[in-house]
Amino acid sequence: MTGNVPAATRTLTVLRALASAASPLTAASLARDLGLPRSSMYHLLSAMEDAGFVAHFPEEGRWGLGVTAFEVGAAYLRHDPLERLARPPIQRLAAEVAQIIPAVAHLGVLHGSETLYLLKEAPSTPVTIVAEVGVRLPASLTASGRAMLADLPAAQVRALFPRNDSFIDRTGLGPMTLRSLNALLAEERARGWAQEDGFITAGLASVAVAAHDHGGRPAASVGLTFRSDHTDERSREALATCARRCAREISRRLSGSSSSIR
Known about the structure:
Layout: H1 7-20, H2 27-34, H3 38-50, E1 54-57, E2 62-65, H4 67-78, H5 81-97, E3 103-111, E4 114-121, E5 136-138, H6 143-149, H7 154-160, H8 178-191, E6 194-197, E7 204-212, E8 218-227, H9 233-255
Antiparallel strand pairs: 1-2, 3-4, 3-8, 4-5, 6-7, 7-8
């Protein structure tokens, strides 16, 4: 990191480094990892400490995140950032797929072993679904849930579904063991999108694609739900392509890339 990098950029880089560390870091290790002179790092940390963004632990000779950083994070959550960033793309997705078939567009997140639905955009032609805003459904059965599960480490999936009784049956369809879930996730991971047909409600099907945060972790999923008898394999692939474009736009917005700034 050269000397002509703006101070604001240096400050944000230090905050990200501290946030991603498992424990507080020394100024020397920060300077080394970020390519800054030690003297510059000490001046930067001192200014950040004065503002409350970092805390110094003198007995350990280490630095960690301060109270102000926590307050900023808490304020971020109060602003419902995911819903606000995702709503316009979800609305555009609903309008786009209306040209193909009547389908409900929705945004979901993982809530333990369940899918929690945050947004829903319905077409002018009604499609009755159970994925209303605020509803939670088994992640193993929903396309939205499995789109996110497919991008999680195997150990995390196993922790979410440790026993066979961790699985819930709604219609007699869908994975009921960790082995069958992993097989389905592997298939959907290779395809690039998840789908379910009658796992939640008989006669309804869904496709979904995960959206990711700046660290590449699945932050949410973009899903489309429609009547099973209104689609074939080709039209479902077309719907999945629309969902993928929407998920990519939401990912860009979540990462704060310049392409998402208007």
